Every structure is written in structure tokens, then in C-alpha cells.
């Protein structure tokens, strides 16, 4: 067995979730499977047990596959910082920066790393399920590509292309994607998957039949819109799946939408808590009046702090703190709460005045801290992870809170992922709700967040089993694209 590449007609077509679903489906068959994404552009990353930093989507896909997440599953991670620069993580460790203009030249070395890593990874697993990035139809990037068709060609991987029917234009996108590729790349396109479908497949069928005729490739399935499946998005806050399904919770949490938010998946577990409504916002009124405000992480602390001030959000925060209403700062958000931030590393701005809501001073160091710390709060165990250059020390009255500090209604920690811990999350929410004057308590018997994440992965795998032609998929994985393309569409139907 070998591998497969799951590409998309667009960003956000559902490649990550389809990859996760295919990983779990294969794992259920007893196949030893690893996820792989040659290059990810995301500020949502995770620290693996081996200390490597990878995209959260690959971390989640490894969980779906039932294997330990590791650096090789996402050898290149680009983290967009201030506007024209990306921080490069290679094999889990910092590897310099790429300016937007250096994209073509800077990438040759990264391509080599990605290819070498894939070649090694596949010696250790039965199957490697690769996820593409963006769309292979971005032919302007094809020459230096090592994530989509560039990877598929190098390793002769069959490519499945996922199209998002919710966005519309899916038939044109599939047809156009194939048409734009050169012959050799086209030869690797093995089939189509329609994703996020709601409604009657019968109505779609004539279009799918025609696409099969026109492209000579089978539609390997139509995946339905899956309500309530929104795990670990790769994109920033805007893409958090749960924003689509807000319920009328009694406890209103506002999460500030920083332009360079990082690890914003921290708030996913809040959104899943019964009786809690989470809203992403950049509105001063919402920040002033919500029951709880979360300042998430940021890949550009000083720049996002400037943005906070320019939007009137800093003032709204000070006012709510004056009224005793809780604010939780996480990593970059926690750094902003300080009296002073000394940063010659990330922004190069030197000493900058912070919001002054915690009695702390933050200093940035060139060394990046990557870790998986554990701690406790009020008797609740907390497993977390940390990814930062800046560290805070307190110089005044404050109460320890995890690795950080709390002063009255202001809470801050460098740790990410703390809210995934059920006992801690619920205890902290109850205390913060009381500060906000809201009667909220955890619902007895509500599922824990890890269980919820597992059930989402299982629903994805169930959808793969039910709606995709898994026999054709297995044949492709076992024999590659040539044989599969030599057979008629849907031989079993
Ligand atoms: N994860 C974060 O929020 C990082 C915070 C900040 N950019 C730092 O590097 O220290």
C-alpha cells in the first residue's frame, strides 16, 4: 500500500475533515495510517509529544488515525506574522522567515525537506493520506509546488479532488480544475468528492453523470453537510465551524478577533459547553457588555495590541474590568494585558506600553518556548501546550493562575489548550460567570470535550463509509491511479 492525496477545488472545501475521516476509516480496517500535509499555512498549531510544532489539522488527523502526532506529518508550517512575512517551521522547529516576495526562491529548500520527509514517513506506515493546500488549479504556483500536484507527481500519488457544493459552482470548479492542469498532472486525478451537500442527491445526479463523462473520472461520493462537526480548523477564527450553530446560551462569551489570532481553537471547547454562547467580535460594545471576554493568542502581539487600541477595544476592556467583569487572556492576549511589553524579537518595537490590566512585564526572547506543561487550578488537573517567545513576570499583587496571573476579574495564562480540560473549564467558567453576575453552572452529564472530539471523528468516518465508494478508494490506495483510471466509473454499482 502507498498513499493518496486529497486536494480541493478551493480552500475550505473540507480537505482537512475528509482527510481525517479517511484516516479514521482506514484505521478502523486495521490499516496503519499516517496523515501528511507537506506545507500548511496556519497559526493554529500544536506541540507534539516530541516537542515538534505542527498544524492542528494534522495533529487531529493523527488522532483520527490512532497514531502519535509527529513533526514528519507536517514538515513545513508557515505562520503568517505581520503583513508580508511568514514564520517558517520546518520539521517542527523554527526555520527563519519568508517574505511574500521570496516565495518562489525560498521554497526550493522547503520542497526538499517535504519530499524527504514524505519518503521516510511512508516507510513507517502502510498508507499515508496527504492533504493538499488551497487548490491544484492555482497553476501560477505549479512550478514550485510541493503540496498539491507537485507532491503527487513526485510520488505518483492518486489525487482525489474535494469540491464544496455549499459554496456553489462545484461542477465548474471540478471541470475547470482538471482542464487547467497539464496532461501529466491530469493523469493523476483519480476522482471527485462532492462535499457539504444538503438536499436530494437525485437532483444532483444528472450533473454528476455529466461530470463523469466530461472528465472521464468517477465521482467517488457525495458527503452530506455534517451538522455539529467542526473540529480544529486550520484557518483563523473566521473559519471556526461552531460559529454557524450558535445557540441561546445564558453565559455570553466574546472572543476578540485579532487579525493575527493564533491557536484560536482554544475557545472551541467553550463553544461546545451547554449554556454557553461564544461570539467572535471586533465590536467595542460587545467587548464591554459580554459576560466573559477572551483575548486569544496572537502571532503578532504588539501589532494586534495596536489594532485593539485603534478599534476602541482597549478602552472597552478597561471599562469592563473597572466594572469587575472577567477577561481571560491567552498567550498573546495575556501578553497584551501587561504593563509593559519589551519586544525586540517579534515586532522589533522595543518597549511598548501594554493594557496595564495585570501587574506584569513581558519580555520577548529569540528562543521559542515549545512545551506540553501540566498544572492544576483549584484542584483540577490541567494539561496544556505552549508556543511563545514572550514571557511574563509579575511585579505586584496578583494571584497565581496556571502558569500566569490573576488580578480581580483579569486572568492570564501563556498556556494553550487549558479549556479542553473539562474539570478546569467548568470550574473556571462557573467562577467567571459569578464575577459577571450570571447564574451558570455546568450541566450534569454533559459530554467532555475529548469525547465530543472523538464522536466528531467517528461521524466523519461513518460518513466516509456510508457515502464514499470505499472499495474504489481502497483499490486506489492499493494499486495507484493507473489501474483505477483504466476501470469504468462505479464498477460496483
Ligand atoms: N501563541 C501565542 O499567542 C504567541 C504569543 C506571542 N506571539 C509570542 O510569540 O510570544
Automatic annotation (TrEMBL):
Catalyzes amidations at positions B, D, E, and G on adenosylcobyrinic A,C-diamide. NH(2) groups are provided by glutamine, and one molecule of ATP is hydrogenolyzed for each amidation. It holds the Pfam family CbiA. Pathway: Cofactor biosynthesis; adenosylcobalamin biosynthesis. The keyword Zinc does not apply. NCBIfam families: cobQ, PRK00784.1. One of its GO terms (molecular function) is catalytic activity. The keyword Lyase does not apply. Residues 252-423 form the CobB/CobQ-like glutamine amidotransferase domain. Gene3D superfamilies: 3.40.50.880, P-loop containing nucleotide triphosphate hydrolases. GO terms for biological process: cobalamin biosynthetic process. This is Cobyric acid synthase. The active site is at residues 331, 416. It comes from the Bacteria. Belongs to the CobB/CobQ family. CobQ subfamily. Keywords: Cobalamin biosynthesis, Glutamine amidotransferase. Residues 5-230 form the CobQ/CobB/MinD/ParA nucleotide binding domain. InterPro entries: Class_I_gatase-like (IPR029062), CobQ/CobB/MinD/ParA_Nub-bd_dom (IPR002586), CobQ_GATase1 (IPR033949), CobQ_N (IPR047045), CobQ_synth (IPR004459), GATase_3 (IPR011698), P-loop_NTPase (IPR027417).
